[in-house]
Amino acid sequence: MKAVIQRVSCAQVKVEDVVIGEIGQGLLILLGVGHDDNAETAKRLWSKISRLRIFEDEAGKTNCSLADVCGEVLVVSQFTLYANCKKGNRPSFIDAGAPELANELYEYFIELVCKDGFPVATGSFGADMKVTLTNDGPFTIVLDTDEL
Description:
- With 148 residues, the protein is α/β, with parallel strands linked by helices.
- It has one domain (2-147): D-tyrosyl-trna(Tyr) Deacylase, Chain: A (3-Layer(bba) Sandwich).
- The chain has helices spanning 39-51, 99-115, and strands spanning 2-15, 18-23, 26-32, 55-56, 62-64, 72-77, 120-122, 129-144.
- Strand 6 (72-77), helix 2 and strand 7 (120-122) form a beta-alpha-beta unit.
- Helix 1 (39-51) crosses helix 2.
């Protein structure tokens, strides 16, 4: 799995000009699923994300986790994180998981966030979405479970 994690002061996702998910302070997670991913991969990724200390404490140091700041989470499916641009100028997505697997693991990842008690909002798997955010910092981290 791959994830682009953005520390945000607010974020929202729209489908056909209708807001379907929005959060205040927290994390916007763009989530990509590869064809070799499984439930254990999702658990490992969420475990890492949930413990990242990327929020500022009272001294302005990044010592706080999502739980420490009572943050919210917006999870948006993003198969384009698996773009392969080695040949030509048109990306290939052959490394992305099949839609059935990707949706299953996307939903499972959301369940993991919910089980840990975080308020969670979502995009709509496979839909044409418009995501807006205010990146706080800016602070953006890219994680790949092949490298965790």
